[in-house]
Structure formats: C-alpha cells, structure tokens
Input
Amino acid sequence: MRYLVIGSGGREHTIAWRLLQDGSAREVYVAPGNGGIDPDHCADIPVGDFPGIARFCKDKKIDMVVVGPEAPLVDGIIDYLAGQKIPAFGPTAKAAMLEGSKLFAKSIMDKYHVPTARHLSFNGKKPLIEHVRKEKKFPVVIKLDGLAAGKGVGIPESQDEALEFIQSAVKEDSRVFVEDFIEGEEASVLCISDGTHIVPFVAAQDHKRIFDGDRGPNTGGMGAYAPAPVMNAARLDFVRTEILQKTIDGMMSEGIPFKGILYAGVIVNGDDIRVLEFNVRFGDPEAQVIIPLMNGRLGDLLQSSVTGSLDKINVSFSTMHAITVVISSGGYPGNYEKGKLISGLDSIESDIIVFHAGTKFSDGNHYTSGGRVLNVTALGSTLGEARDRVYGAIDAITFDGAYYRKDIGHRALARS
Ligand code: GLY
Output
C-alpha cells in the first residue's frame, strides 16, 4: 500500500512513522511534511490545495490518503477526493462540522442526550455583552463558533475580563455562546468509527498551558501521556456508550454518517463526565502517545473505517505507558524566531522516538521552523519509567531558545 498523509506536525509524523514501522505501508508520502520525514517522501503541496493533492495521488499511485489536521476536513478534502475516486480516511465536510461548528456539535449533543455543559447562544457582540452584564457567576466559558486555531475560547474570571475578551475576540456578526464552567480534570478520549461501529482508544491527557503547573497561556499542547488513569474502566465505558457511540448513532440518524477519528475532550468530576469539545481527527500531541501503544497495523484500522468493517477487526493496546514532551521555540505561543540549528538528534538512544513538528531539513542539518518543534517520546512499563526515559534524554537535544515543560504527566504520577 502507498499512503499520503496530509499535514506537517508531530501527529502526521507519528502516523507516517507507524504506517511504515508496522508493515501497513510500502511507501508513505507526507504533504507538506516536516524535517523529520525523508525529503524524498515529502510532497511540497499545501494542505488546502485539493487539486494538487489529487494530482499527486494519481501520479504516485496512492492507495489511501490520511488527513491529519481539521482545516482540510472542514473544507471538504474527503468529499473532493471521493469525487476523484481516491480513497481517503476522515470525515466528510458535513460530518466534520462536529469540530467546525461548536454550535452544531451542541445541537447534536442536546438532541441525542450526550452529556455536555448547558449553553446559551448569541448572534453578535451586543446581545452577548447584555448577557454578560447580567451574569453573576464567574468564571464562565465564552466560545466562538467555527475553527479558531485554539483562540476561540475565553474563560473569564470576572465581568471585566469577560468584556475584555468579547472586545478582543468577538465580532459584530460572530456566532458565539456562553457555557457553564465545569470544575474537574480533562481527558482526551478518542475512537475510530466507520459510521456505525466504534473502536475506542486508550485515553490520554494533554497539557495545554505553556508553563509547569498548568499555568500561563494555552498552546497547541506541550506534552501528553497515555493511558490517563483519571479515565478508569467504568468512566471509559461511560464515555464509550454515552458519548462516543451516541454521537455516532446521532450523526447516522441525521443522515451524516461519521467516518474517521472522533475525539471527545471531556471533563471528569467524579461520576459526572461531560463533553467540552469534539475534534474530528487525532489530537496533537495525543497521537504521539496513543499510536505507539496500539497493537496491530494502523493501516488495517484506517481502512476498516473507510470500508465500514470496523466490527471485523480486533484492536488491542499495549499494557505499556507512553509519554511525549514537546520542545518549543522560545517565546511560543507568542512571537518566536525560526531557523535555529538543532543539535543532538543523532545522539538519541533507540528507546526514544523523536517525532518532528516545526522543523526543516536543509544541507544535512535540522532547523526550527515552527512553535512546537519536536516531540520527545518514550514508552515504559510504568509512566514513571517512561517519564524518566524522556527527561533523561531530552537535554541532549538543543537549539537556541529551546523550552519544554518539566512536569508532563504530573497528575497521573501524583496518583501512583
Ligand atoms: N491536543 C489538543 C488537540 O489536538 O486539539
């Protein structure tokens, strides 16, 4: 099989690595890819250039396209490739609305009794400001509808902060809603679906804030680990039946079958588990810890989703623990410089996997080219062992301004 993976982050490097490593693929191309991927297998095509992607698939005789990020899914890449008779893994544009429109996701959850926070929706700034002026209880959650690259959510602690967020982020015609703030611990529970059946994955937890102790601004994710013990067997079963399967069934009832990865970002407060958000693709950096723990061939799983035969496949997970720590550029998630020479990658031991994200390979060297640069990943028979492996290796990789969190996995490690 020849695969084309769409995207350029750590998630896409992980997918490509696994397809090759487990024998799913004879050849894997990545468009546009990154500095960790064999340059002969990087296709310099932007993720939004659907005709260019289709031409490449025909030229290289690609058997299956695997789409990493949400934007091309929401923009209809799966529908476009279907029109070109190119098999592709992921949801159609209509199904991807579960991530593309938070209000659509809310309407599905409300209609099919999937537990989530209560919300009130508004069209535009003015009615929202009127509502916030009357609000007595803070924090509240304010969410903009539509993809916003992680910038569409505010959790103001006071009325002043709420008004400030609205002035900076909400436009006169924005569709927006206010949600109850729910205390608890977050977890990422992903499954793969073929429109009818689901196969849940081992639960993960990511670390969205930039600084240790979960402080500072949100990022794309500074590290992750799996399995996440907050999601014990009973809770995982609840998420499987009451959240993931109900949503897949609801989408089918709406005439919008969902094929691909459904990612439920949930909040756990004792037995109270609710959906904070849905994503329609692998999480990044969750993929970097979930995929290495899978047994079997990733390609078989992806194909079973496309062909509607997930009920015929056996999927299991290793009993190991995985952790990934992101090394970012200094200044990220704010302004940062690119083009810094990365040293030390060659000295990394074979029990460490380094998934690249914002890197470029040029003249025999790796350089930084993004905010999240590398994902240093290890497995261990305990989370502590995996953590010690990663942190024992990470300082060998250096570049000017390199930064990483020192406490990835802290909640689970405190429990053990
Ligand atoms: N790690 C969060 C996300 O992938 O959206």
About this structure: Residues 206, 221, 279, 283-284, 286 surround glycine (CB under 6 Å). The domain at 118-180 is CATH 3.30.1490.20 (Dna Ligase; domain 1). The two ends are 42 Å apart (CA to CA). The first strand starts at residue 2 and ends at 7.
